[in-house]
Amino acid sequence: GDSVTQMEGPVTLSEEAFLTINCTYTATGYPSLFWYVQYPGEGLQLLLKATKADDKGSNKGFEATYRKETTSFHLEKGSVQVSDSAVYFCALMSSASKIIFGSGTRLSIRP
Amino acid sequence: DGGITQSPKYLFRKEGQNVTLSCEQNLNHDAMYWYRQDPGQGLRLIYYSQIVNDFQKGDIAEGYSVSREKKESFPLTVTSAQKNPTAFYLCASSIQGAGQETQYFGPGTRLLVL
Fold first, then answer.
1. Of A34, A93, A104, the CB nearest to B42
2. Which residues from chain B sit within 8 angstroms of residue A101, using beta carbons?
3. How many beta-carbon contacts under 8 Å exist across A and B?
4. Which residue of B has its CA nearest to A3?
5. Residue A84 phi/psi, 5° resolution?
6. How far is A36 from chain B (nearest CA, A)?
7. Which of B92, B101, B108 sits opposite A49 (nearest CB)?
8. B4 CA to centre of own chain
9. What is the 3-state secondary structure (H, E, C) of chain B?
10. From CA B105, how far away is CA A90, in angstroms rounded?
11. Facing residue for A98 by CB, picked from B40, B45, B90
């Protein structure tokens, strides 16, 4: 069945460092791909999405490019801030129109 | 403001007790979902509803029940048959059709067993 695999955390970086969180997927066809973010004690918020191959989703300085050749959707940010500390979930929309989430990656940013 | 509300924020359950988690949305969304989140794990789908008076089991429906009598409400009951209910429960909603992949989440309810 469809699945999402993302790098295990926690990831700890210093402020202004470059961020990459890896995400790969297994699915039938070309599903829509997403990154959701969960701040402490809150529900999830959609961060960005891409609906077809080579699309780049971007928001709040974060970017991810839909790579069908490598079935990947890695999250990147050039300069992280303390306020970016959260749990990040990679996800896809399955052929059954359900969202399949990865296990989440906890990101901590040191001042 | 439009959004999804969940109550209570924390809920305690005694052995053998049924408890109900509330989820209300004023976004006029047709579809609503319940997820369970365990530490270090992703979200797992419990139940979902695409329209009033209709709902389907997700991946981990055993020990849970839902109802969808109104468009804006989708309560989840954790029954005594659920042997390991301690988790963070998240409710979400979305439109149907184009754009349904964007789900809007509530703030969650943390359920603890006494």
1. A104
2. 42-43
3. 48
4. B42
5. -80, -5
6. 10
7. B101
8. 11
9. CCCEEEECCEEEECCCCCEEEEEEECCCCCEEEEEEECCCCCEEEEEEEEECCEEEECCCCCCEEECCCECCECCEEECCCCCCCCEEEEEEEECCCCCCCCCEECCCEEEEEC
10. 15
11. B45
Closest CA in chain B for residue A99: B101
Q: Cα dihedral sign for A106, B1, B3, B5?
A: positive
pLDDT tens track for B25-60: 999 999 999 999 998 778 999 999 999 999 999 999
Instruction: Tell me the two tokens of residue A12.
Output: 């700890």
Contact of A92 with A27, CB cutoff 8 Å: yes
Rg, C-alpha atoms of chain A: 13
Give CA–CA dist A80/A83, Å, rounded: 8
* pLDDT tens digits, one per residue of A7-36: 888 999 999 999 999 999 999 888 999 999
Nearest CA to B49 among B26, B10, B23, B88? B23
> Which residue in A101, A105, A106 has the most chain B C-beta atoms within 10 A of its own C-beta, making it the best mutation to test that interface?
A101
A38-78 residue pLDDT tens: 998 888 999 999 999 999 999 999 999 999 999 999 999 99
Residues of B at the A interface (Cβ-Cβ below 8 Å)? Answer: 4, 6, 40-43, 45, 48, 58, 90-92, 100-108
